[in-house]
Amino acid sequence: MNEEKDMADARAILAGYRASIDNIDAALIHMLAERFRCTKAVGVLKAEHGLPPADPSREQQQIARLRQLAKDANLDPDFAEKFLNFVVREVIRHHEQIAANNGAAKAG
Ligand SMILES: C=C(O[C@@H]1C=C(C(=O)O)C=C[C@H]1O)C(=O)O
Q1: Does the CA dihedral 19-22-28-33 come out positive or negative?
Q2: What is the pLDDT of residues 34-73, one digit of tens each?
Q3: Would the ipTM clear 0.85, i.e. be above it?
Q4: For a designed S-S bond to 95, which of 53, 65, 86, 101 qualifies (C-beta 3.0 to 4.6 A apart)?
Q5: Where are the coiled-coil regions (predicted)?
Q6: pTM of the predicted protein model
C-alpha cells in the first residue's frame, strides 16, 4: 500500500518537473527563433556592405563572456562554449547563403 503511494507521489513529482522542462524548452525555442531573426538581419546588413560572414574576434569576446556567465550560474562552461559555437556555426552558414544570394541578385 505504502509502495503504491510512494510510486504515485514520485509520478506526480516527475510530472511537475516535466511541466517545467516543457515550459523551459518552449522558451528556448522562442529565444532561439528571436536570436536567428536578429542574426539574419545582421547577415543582410553585412551582405549589403561587403562585410565578412564571420567575426572571430567578436566570437572570442562572446565565448569569454558566456563562460563566465555559465560559471556564475553553475553551468559547465565547456558546454556553454560548445552550445554557442553550435549556434554561431549555423548563423555563419545563413550569412554565407545571404551573401551568395545578394551577389547573385546584384549580378542578375
Ligand atoms: C551575428 C554576427 O555574425 C556572426 C555570428 C555571431 C553570433 O551568432 O553571435 C557572432 C559573430 C559572427 O561570427 C555578428 O557579427 O555579430
Answers
A1: negative
A2: 999 999 999 999 999 999 999 999 999 999 999 999 999 9
A3: yes
A4: 53
A5: none
A6: 0.93
Pocket test for ligand 1, best of 60, 92, 93, 96 (most atoms within 8 A of CB): 92
Largest CA distance in the chain: 77
Q: What's the CA gap between 86 and 70, in Å, rounded?
A: 16
Residues whose CB is less than 8 angstroms from the CB of residue 105 and which lie 6 or more positions away in sequence, other chains included: none
98 and 44 in contact (C-beta within 8 Å)?
yes
The type of residue at 25 is: D
Q: Which amino acid is at 87?
A: V
Name the pLDDT band for 1 (thresholds 50, 70, 90): low
